């Protein structure tokens, strides 16, 4: 039961004019997205969309040989499952929660019904797809041209941007291997290198504590390019959605529940 009012914490939803947000609000449920839970697997039909309020979700692509790599990291600036609103009901990637948080969940059918009634919601989808395309293009170039050390620094910064506070990130070497698409032995070497440069303060089991200024110095330029371009697209898109006026969407949210299945 909805028992309190909470301001929208997702940038895409916040940008919607109140009347358009009201089309979605009755169907949005606040859920807990737990670390390592799978929101949708590649090739599966998308049944629900998720608009993160906090935490970080990685879009993982798996090759035929079983090797994986993260092609995008999504937080409160984006959504999971929006590709289904473009007529592709199957998920192109596996969405795995890498930093726990909360999200607003809505069924695909309910979202599509609202989208068909709202040009602003349809435009919101386009805004997100543009920002996602920027990530996909930049990550592809980065993976091809830059060192594993620079790529790891970039990935840790993207995750830290979406973390719930503090400099300790709940990441194992197995997770880093999955995100970067490299062997665990390579991850071990790179983590040691970053520790030697003091970009990583400590490396306890299942947790990395970062020194952000040093990490930024070691990251490739892709981090700043992606952050700047995504911020620009989302900000410009938000301005267009509300016709130059800031959105003030506020609506009651239910108590949190769990989302996804364990990987």
Automatic annotation (TrEMBL):
UniProt keyword annotations, A-Z: DNA-binding, Transcription, Transcription regulation
UniProt-recorded name of the protein: Cyclic nucleotide-binding protein
Pfam family, one: HTH_Crp_2
InterPro entries assigned: cNMP-bd_dom (IPR000595), cNMP-bd_dom_sf (IPR018490), Env_Response_Regulators (IPR050397), HTH_CRP (IPR012318), RmlC-like_jellyroll (IPR014710), WH_DNA-bd_sf (IPR036390)
Phylogenetic placement of the source organism: Bacteria, Pseudomonadati, Pseudomonadota, Alphaproteobacteria, Hyphomicrobiales
Region (Disordered): 244-263
Residues of the HTH crp-type domain: 146-214
Gene Ontology CC, one term: cytosol
Keyword match Acetylation: no
A GO term for molecular function: DNA binding
